[in-house]
Design brief:
By secondary structure, the protein is an alpha/beta fold. The protein folds into two domains: 2-193 and 250-401, Alkaline Phosphatase, subunit A (3-Layer(aba) Sandwich); 195-242, no CATH class. It has eleven helices and 15 strands. The chain has helices spanning 61-64, 73-77, 105-112, 131-140, 150-156, 197-207, 213-223, 252-265, 286-308, 379-389, 398-401, and strands spanning 2-6, 32-34, 37-42, 49-55, 65-66, 92-96, 98-100, 116-123, 167-169, 184-188, 272-277, 315-321, 341-346, 354-356, 377-378. The strands form two sheets. Strands 1, 2, 3, 4, 8, 9, 10, 11, 12, 13, 14 and 15 form a twelve-stranded mixed β-sheet that branches. A hairpin with a 1-residue loop joins β6 and β7. The longest helix has 23 residues, at 286-308. The two termini are 40 Å apart.
Amino acid sequence: MNLFRTGLCPDAASGGLPLSRRQALLGLTAAVTLGRTSLALAAPVTEQRFVVILLRGALDGLSAVQPYGDPDFARIRGELALSGPGAQGGLLDLGGMYGLHPSLPNVHTMYQAGDALLLHAVAGHYRSRSHFEAQDCLESGADERLNSGWLNRAVLMMPTRTGQDIALSVGLSAPLLLRGPATVQAWAPDHFAQPTPDLYQRLLSISLRDPVIGPAMREGIKQRGFDAAALAGPAGPSSQAIPPNQPGHDRSFEVLAATAGRLLAQPDGPRVAALELGGWDTHAGQARRLEIALWQLDAGLAALKSALGASWRSTAVLAVTEFGRTAAVNGTGGTDHGTGGVALLCGGAVAGGKVRADWPGLGQGRLFENRDLAPTTDLRSVIKGVLIDHMGLPGPGLEQVLPGSLEAQKMGGLIRA
């Protein structure tokens, strides 16, 4: 494990982050990068904790939280529409109209305890379907990429301890979300996560038809012991969901989330964290691929809650993605880049146990641009609701955090009184 302290100097062109190991880690902030997951922390003076999870690749909200009560849902979703609550392998009950994907059992437990709030038909203020552009807008909180993220700017508005830095990054870079004028502390693990069988399978599929690289890649992967998992193809074991309690499950996000929880739980530790989890770009074979990603998210949230202990009561966790996916299934059993989707807000401080949505419907003439779930809730309204009601930021100052967001009014009722 390597600990070091640095100042972040974001570069909009390169995204480079100069790091210095000559300075000692003075605060208790931390950030982690491990495989395709990463974590960054910041430390304001407050008992309230706020965690943001970036789901990179565009989560299909219509699969994660299925509106099975919509009369057009089964028709438009085809093979991706699961059986209703109570059926074998069916959705988890959310009280009617909506059902939770069965790969989210821990989230469902939180929901039943009133600690999870599901927000549907949500989207950022932008309408780009480019991952890069949308992620930049999501993290900067503006219509274009800025040199700082909205979470970094929000942290600057929070009181800090004398002589203690506010933010921290782990690994080679921090997400744009947490870059900016705040000084950043850094933590780096000695070893990064090993590539998953799913990644090997993707590399193999890219080179399969090359007469030179293909056979060499196939033989090399076989020698690595992935002949069963990586060479079986989309229908093989590598595409099947592996529950968190079984061998072979990728636990890197779970480990990071637990690390974040332990740091956040310390009395004088950090209070704001940002994590990343990839694997949501499900253009093909979505049913099985999404199960894997949802299992990882679910296990990570459970690990975060467990590590927080009593501090869970003062925590709000916001999981967001850059955009949703198309309402209809494509020809390869997947979905393409869309617009409206789902945001998850959970934690002991959250007024959960319900689904909040101004549901637009999936019928003729109701889809955005005749292809996507129409967004009816601005994600910035959700962010403002958490920052004001949970973290105590002043409403008028949020125009500096989320530039040009005056029309996005704070969503109330997200946090317990």
